[in-house]
Amino acid sequence: MDSLSQIALGAAVSVAVMGRRTAVWKAALWGAVAGTLPDLDVFIDQGDAIRNMVLHRAESHSLFWLTLFSLPFAALVARLQGDWGKTGKTGDWQILRRWWLAMWLALVTHPLLDAMTVYGTQLALPFSNYPFGVDSIFIIDLLYTLPLLVGVSWALATRNGPRAHRGQMANAVGLLLSTAYLAWGFAAQQQVAQVARASLAQQGIVVEHLLVTPTPFNTVLWRVVAVAGDDYFEGFYSLLDARPQITFDRFPRGMALAPELQHIDGVQRIVSFTQGLYKFEQRGSRLLITDLRMGQEPNYSFTFAVAERHSPPVALAKPEQIEQSIDIPRSLAWLWRRALGELLPPPR
Hints:
Helix 1 (3-18) packs antiparallel against helix 5. A hairpin with a 2-residue loop joins strand 5 and strand 6. The protein is α+β, with helices and mostly antiparallel strands. It contains 10 helices and 10 strands. The chain has 2 domains: 3-185, no CATH class; 203-329, no CATH class.
């Protein structure tokens, strides 16, 4: 998820756990810090554009490593805030345990929330590098974030005086509503998946890989990608559509290029990371690989040049990410109208 959502989630979790055991602003501040820390891996240069992509949300998002980190981090927080060393050994241990729980939850809810998106989060490192992705929420969705922001803001605004308990209650309600929104997104995804499978079966398409993920900023309009052999199919379905049916457009995956490119390290990484949702293509003399999960035809978030066309192709010294040009006003206008159930062709 986006940084604002992670900051709000970390702060809300920390405020809920700490309650009145420390100042609300302290709990919110350190919860926000803990909610931000896992994403600092974006400042690490892994060597090339593909490695930077597939190694984001890796060790820094591992539940195992974050759990190990949480105790010394919580001890540092308790010491810096002066909550440790005031009440004797028993009191110190109690407040440390509470800070530990707050910081651990703020840290681990970050990758767990990320895993609800389509990107791929390697939760199980160092035991497995499998990129978990539920695919049921877009990376930015204000309906998820706003309840958290309102709850934390309310708690901070009423931190003193007789209304402090109302702030704590508002924060808890914000957490509940945001979590309920995640549950709603998952339920909506399952409904769309059923419609997608039925529509594909009616059209005689035998699917190898199926992706059902929300379009930007909402959980009403969903994008469906189905991979079948040398082709992939893209369709859109709104929960407000009059009929439970999806029309798919067909596109080539360029799999004839696979034998020539499969030895390239970056190609192997994308193939594994996308779990089959990729395509090859040639533009001029350059050979490209594209992650089909993020974006929509023909504009994708991650397209990389990996080789030059010679005989045979020659791998580039470093993969290069290809920038895409998107008509944002036109795309947003289509998104809004299509979400409301208007059957419009996508803006190709």
